[in-house]
Amino acid sequence: MYGTNMTVRKRLTIIFILSSLFFVFLMGRLAWVQFVHGSELQEKALEVRMRDIPLEPRRGSILDRNGKELVISISVDSVYATPLQVEDENARATADKLAPLLGMDADKLHKRLIKKSSFEWLKRKVDHNTAEQIRALNLPGIELVEESRRHYLDPGLAPHLLGFAGIDNQGLTGIERSYDKELGGRPGRIVIEHDAAGRKIPEAKHYYIPAQPGHDLVLTLDETVQYFVERELDNVVAQYNPKFALAIAMDPETGGILAMANRPSFNPNNWSREPKSVWDKNPAIWYNYEPGSTFKVVTAAAALEEDTVKPDDSFFDPGYIKVADRNIRCWKDGGHGSQSFVEVVKNSCNPGFIQVGLETGVPRFYKYVEAFGFGSRTGINLPGEERGIVIPVDRPVTNLNLATMSIGQSIAVTPIQLLSAVAAVANDGVLMKPQLVREIRADGKTVARMQPEKVRQVISANTARQLRGLLENVVADGTGRNAFVEGYRVGGKTGTAQVVGESGGYVSGRYVASFVGFAPVEDPKMALLVVIAEPQGGVYYGGVVAAPVFQAMARDILRYLRLPETPGLKKPRKPYEAEEPRVEVDVPDVVNYTAEEAGRILESAGLRYQTRGEGGLVREQTPGPGARVNQGTTVILDLKETVSRSGGTVAVTVPNMRGMTIKEAGHVLENMGLRIVPEGSGVAVRQSYSPGAAVKRGAPVKVVFQPPVRDNDTGPGAVTTRQPESHIIQGPDIH
What we know:
The protein is of the alpha+beta class. It folds into 5 domains: 2-36; 51-219, Penicillin-binding protein 2a (Domain 2) (Alpha-Beta Complex); 223-268 and 281-441 and 451-560, DD-peptidase/beta-lactamase superfamily (Beta-lactamase, 3-Layer(aba) Sandwich), CATH 3.40.710; 583-641, Trypsin Inhibitor V, Chain A (2-Layer Sandwich); 644-735, Trypsin Inhibitor V, Chain A (2-Layer Sandwich). The protein is 32% helix and 26% strand. It has 21 helices and 35 strands. The strands form 11 sheets. Strands 2, 3, 4, 5, 8, 16 and 17 form a 7-stranded mixed beta sheet that branches. Strands 10-9-21-20-19 form a 5-stranded antiparallel beta sheet, with helices on both faces. The protein has a 3-stranded antiparallel beta sheet with strand order 1-6-7. Strand 9 (244-250) and strand 10 form a beta hairpin. It is elongated, with a radius of gyration of 40 Å.
């Protein structure tokens, strides 16, 4: 009995101890959950029964320098669903009613309505009429929330610069993207408590956290100046149908962008329907191109600052200059003869600028190329800016490289780089960082003001004033006469450059015409660049295509800015008309050659040809052999039959095979029914029958071949190989 009681007591003790330990564990766990993880678990519980409806902030407006609104945000409604509140049996009917209003497929909409989720966007930013029709239906689980949509008041005004925002009001391109943080604001939300089935709870918690609107931006852009620029670019497109065209206007004292326009353009209100190739890049900051003669401003600035040249220094232009093994032509046939450096600039003389560039030397020339900002980004606050292409100075740079860079070849720049450099000349040698935004405002009050940013002093004020005078001569009496603005002293430079192909080399017939300038010369308040890529219609010179566009823009801008006119300015005697460079060539002798071979010889000499009559051989040519004509002249070829009948005998006329290879001569004779008997190798120097002789069909014709020799080789039957006329470069930059 005693043993049994002890056993029971032991068991009770063990149970008590275990129960106590378990109770202590439970109390500890409860304390751990309550005090250590209580806040975290409470938040998770709230997440389960609370539903967040995001509230998009109103994006800030964008205004021009005068406070005129360019971009605003307008209130719109977005449609969303709470699928847990849509009864499954009603989901089909709801989808059928909503689908036509939302422009959606009813089946796809139905699948979204029966999802086991607490929130589904159905369509964002619907128009007012659609929103009212949906409200009138009063469908369970279907609600609307106010959002905002970006609206561009004048969709054709500076879309590449302003950019656009996406469906979630995030900036995607242009200023909208660069200043997305300032414009975007801070989102808010509505928080509503629901039960496990997603139903609203009476007297439930309801939080409203308001969105904070974005700041407004005040730009340096002037809406009126932008309009002038856009209008003239439309005229350019109508007249020349270029691949693209652009213009940038800048205040040289501050670097502020007054206008920036591109063609083709797009509508930012419907950007998703526009070609990506149009809105994806801004050519004004992205396009790398050889600037041609507009770059001579940099060459002149470097030479004047380094005292390499003085305005009254004398030059002689025979029509070309020899650099290394190349002859680089002047754009004017026969050259400009004797002239001062003032006239070199006025006439845009290639040999003169090359001579100045070579005398300046690579180290000093590169010093100013880099100082003016070429080869690096300007820092304009827009996405997608390129840095241009400059041959690395340690490549090394040869005299030929330096010569071609001096006239704007062998270097690629962006339009914003070139305008910034010329604006530095207008600003007494001070290079300014391009500026887009003047102020940031909140509730109409200025919260930040952007100050103009000086980059560096590139040339002295003295040199800048001297160079401005030289560039004024270009407009007053040089290649830029078509840019003259009555009542204002204008300085500037024309440019015409060939387009560089994707695989290197220049593409025939494709040019970039440009003009860059500033006004008034005595105290410039405006710098302006016009670039027209690949104009159609046969006219492509900067002085003819781009300068008149500059003149039209500058005239209206200067008057709009209310700048005082200079009385008594002498108007240029006559408009500038480009002089086509003429290259003379000797007409080769192609009599008794086959028509095919004669055409090949003439084309290689830079001549065109036209055949008359029937036959396989050339009987006569006009102009005759040895005549001196302009390149591109058409030579008339009178043909004759290669086979004739004389007294029942079939006769064949022997062609001229001089200069042909064995393969070429054999092919020609075989086609005419004759048999070649070759001797030697190389090119044909002699043949057994004279060209034009009549022989029987099938007759053997002995042809002697020898290796080609150079001009200084002599000897009987020697064949001369000469450097073609094309060895003398006609620079892609015209003037």
